[in-house]
Specification:
Mean pLDDT: 89
Structural class: mainly alpha
Low-confidence stretches: none
Number of helices: 3
């Protein structure tokens, strides 16, 4: 059974990932983006815009 994320939960996760991504080294940024895509189910381009 899938649990849906509320808008507030999605924004909280996006903000946390955004902070991690900004502080990460270049080699780690792709991995962080892929984790975000897997967690959110977004298309890659949508995740980049988030």
């Amino acid at each position: 059974m899938k649990t849906k994320m509320t808008h507030a939960m999605r924004m909280e996760l996006a903000n946390a990932v955004r902070d991690r991504h900004a502080a990460a080294a270049t080699k780690d940024k792709r991995r962080i983006l892929e984790e975000f895509i897997a967690a959110m189910g977004y298309h890659e381009k949508s995740a980049i815009r988030s």
